Amino acid sequence: MSSLPDLELFTMGMWSIGLGAIGVAVTGILLANTDLFLSKPEAASLEFLETTELRSLGEEERTFKAGELWKKNGAVIMAVRRPGCFLCREEASELSSLKPQLDQLGVPLYAVVKEKIGTEVEDFQHYFKGEIFLDKKKKFYGPHKRKMLSMGLIRLGVWQNFLRAWKNGYSGNLEGEGFILGGVYVIGAGKQGVLLEHREREFGDKVSLQSVLEAAEKIKPQAADTD
What we know:
Structural class: alpha/beta
Subcellular location: Cytoplasm
Protein name: Peroxiredoxin-like 2A
Order of helices and strands: HHEEHEHHEHEHEEH
CATH superfamily of the largest domain: Glutaredoxin
Radius of gyration: 23 Å
Pfam families: AhpC-TSA_2
Main location: cytoplasm
Strand order of the largest sheet: 2-1-5-4-3-6-7
Oligomer: single chain
Keywords: Antioxidant, Cytoplasm, Membrane, Redox-active center, Transmembrane, Transmembrane helix
């Protein structure tokens, strides 16, 4: 039979282990909510993006170089993390709200996806008012592809984004790859360059619509080719 001092030592030891585990968990959560462990984005140059091979997803599929999209009038391009994600659908809807202003500027709105699964792209089209293309090599998600895994689920900002999108009436599914982070680009006409590059820091990190418009207004359309 154990003596009372031994029992007290055992109890104190268990309490120490428990408090230590709690301390580790709290420290982990605090660190996960900083940018310390977030992978740093690498800026995508115009040269890197314009050679990207894209494929149209309409009835008549064709493959072409991405530079065609912004050659004459520039473009706003959303790199969609996952079409079925309700956070991506929210951002697509908000970007689409700019279409009247973009049309007035003569700047087209496009999106690229990493994969085509079932009717995911067609369903996403209800939220996005521009043409969507397949970027199979995921170059619009690079040059350094960044992922957010389970750590994203303990970030306060992510849960705030979840709540915001849910309150705004958005819903989605879990189909497809959703860990490689996306972004939004505003690219000038011809060789004008990348005027805005927003890279998702965490799930639901949306681009500023005002920044998109301001960048789009800087686009200088190329003169039409003449014989």
